[in-house]
Amino acid sequence: MDKALQSMINNMPEKTGKKLDEWIQILHDKSFEKHSIAVKYLKDEHGVTHGFANTIVTLSRENNVTSDDLVLTQYIGKASLKPIYELLISTVTSFGNDVVITPKKGSVSLIRKKQFALIKPATKTRIDLGLKLKDVEVQGRLENSGPFGTMCTHRIQLQNISDVDAETIKWLTLAYEKSV
């Protein structure tokens, strides 16, 4: 979250009389279908300035999206990749109960103490599995990070469920072990 937004959230109780979660509950109770109507409601009924009203409505809508919704959206038109994703998740959860699975808009982060992997449906026919493996040479199916930049050091391209093989699991396990 950027500093300006965090500052706005921190100042919200003083400037609007309520904390963000209180405003979100009010909007949830009213259940507005349109962003503009919710902004108008906050301005007219509660005297909230436009900037705060717009921020409150935007953040309330983001909070209504569940983790399952984020994952489902990632695989629209890519249904053949979903079994690969599910196998990766079941593999990672078998590593230990300290794995945090964090879906985002376009990917799913796998975190222990630090992020150790990222699952991204890159195309309609391929998942890119990003791994954080510092000081590991590119070898076998392990490639340079590709589209991940600094989030991951390496990637493995997965097109079939059979690609989640012993080599993939070995690299995923190593990334998990290094993330302490």
From TrEMBL:
Residues 74-177 form the DUF5655 domain. InterPro entries: DUF4287, DUF5655. Pfam families: DUF4287, DUF5655. It comes from the Bacteria. This is DUF4287 domain-containing protein. It comes from Cognaticolwellia beringensis.
